[in-house]
Amino acid sequence: MRLFIFFALLFSYWQTTLAQVTVQYDDETIREMVEVHTSTLRNNPEIPGYRIHIYSDMKRDLVLEMRSRFMQVFPTIDSYVEYVKPEFKLRLGNFIDKKVANKYIRKIKSEFPSAYIVQDNVLRTRIVFE
Q: What is the CATH number of the domain that holds 110?
């Protein structure tokens, strides 16, 4: 029963990260576990998820040009340039559900046919749900 309550509280916190909620705990262990978890969430803005990879190159300028082209076609989708030695990568979106990433990749492949989905850390404040 304690485990159920613990996960119910975590789920409700995750759904309302911006709301302030005060909860009374009867068990000190549960209170400590929730405090550790909420502290971790506050200190780490990223969670495991998916992004769409559309381009990579060793030349940063080429990747930035591709990003500009992408932003002209899809201005509402977040784009990120990351440097992972030895190349720069252009990745898109913040998805925690692969089904949602698949929905977006269908649209993106019309303009960028080499796009594919990759596992990556995503910004939990920018998650795309639909």
A: 3.30.70.1070
Residues 29-70: tens digit of each pLDDT: 777 777 776 766 667 788 899 999 999 999 999 999 999 999
Indicate if 8 and 37 belong to the same structural domain. Answer: yes
Task: Say how far apart CA 77 and CA 73 lie, in whole Å.
Answer: 10
pLDDT digits (tens, 9 = 90+) for 103-118: 999 999 999 999 999 9
Radius of gyration, CA atoms only, the chain: 19
Distance, CA of 92 to CA of 75 (rounded, Å):
11
Domain encompassing residue 109: 46-126
Instruction: Provide the whole-model pTM.
Output: 0.67
Concatenating the DSSP letter of every residue in 97-112 gives: SHHHHHHHHHHHTTT-
Task: Report helix, strand or coil for 96.
Answer: coil
